[in-house]
Predict the structure.
Amino acid sequence: MSYYAGRIQACQKSENKVSVTIRKRGTNTDITLQVNRIINCTGSNCNYRRLQDPLIASLQQQGLIRPHTLGIGIDTAEVGSAVIDVKGNISEILYTLGPPRKGNLWETTAVGEIRLQATNLVEELLKGCQLSI
């Protein structure tokens, strides 16, 4: 088994194989391989600069969110899950949980991690609130 770091440039199905052209990372060199399978290990698309979702596009056009500098997820505050706008201001009304926080937290896709984020967010939102039953 062989591994290659790079980006897929093209794929072409033949009878029993797939011809894959890869541009090797950090070079302009392309290699073409005949393979039985292609396995995508990049995960879900977390690059908010490229997402075509209408909500995300609208929030970005209004400057209410900004992509994380790593190109994965939305930039968020360290505590409380508040999003950060294009000017660097921490929102008091927009929050996110889970994969959109991948740039800040990296491990943010499992139910346990998201549950903890939700708990922390609730605690942050309830600060200063007095509840009576």
In short: The chain is about 20% helix and 25% strand. The CA atoms of residues 95 and 113 lie 16 Å apart.
